[in-house]
Amino acid sequence: MPSTTSIVAAAVGLLASAGIAQGAAVEKRYTTVNNVQHTFYGFPDNDPPSADIAYDCGRGNKAGGKGTYADPRTFASAPGEFNKCEIIWDPYTEKYLIFEDTCAQCESDWNNGQYHIDIWTGSSSQSGGQAQIDCEDQLTPSRGHNVVRGGSQNHDVNTGPLYSPSSGCHPENVFPNNN
């Protein structure tokens, strides 16, 4: 049986003979997932109500993030729909998102073949209450949007808040023209 090293060397040789540089082959390994249902959640409608998340991806077990690649915003989904701690690019919010939590409706949708992400709105206290839930409903688009897995780390990012108890809802930080 050939060694892993010889298999990799053979693959690199094939790429080179095809005129493809190693870096180019790696850079192209992204996947666009079409028609992903987007919803939003926060402290008051997390189960149980809190900022706690299912997976610790190296920054404690609390939801958060600004949306940059270095500090991606938490999203919930169905186990197995994305890889734990996987970072995706979401053009609808212009934010990088990290799979750190689970979502019951996402699981139901995934079992029916529908991708679904639930994006953390940002407040880590109970003080948002119904106003935060109303904001989440306002941010939720009427149709699915594409997300990118394994893509570039160099997208322009909107780090603006989605919800804050002090300043309220920020629909200007999602892109309703893509609704």
Detailed description of the structure:
The protein is α+β, with helices and mostly antiparallel strands and 179 residues long. It has one domain. The chain is 22% helix and 23% strand. It contains four helices and eight strands, in the order H-H-E-E-E-E-H-E-H-E-E-E. The protein has helices spanning 4-17, 22-27, 104-111, 129-139, and strands at 31-41, 73-77, 87-90, 95-102, 116-120, 145-149, 163-164, 168-169. The strands form two sheets. A six-stranded mixed β-barrel has the order 1-5-2-4-3-6. The chain has a two-stranded antiparallel ribbon with strand order 7-8. The radius of gyration is 19 Å and the shape is globular. Mean pLDDT is 84; it is low at 1-27.
Rg value: 19 Å
Proportion of β residues? 15-25%
Total domain modules: 1
Shape: globular
Keywords:
179 residues; alpha+beta; six-stranded mixed beta barrel
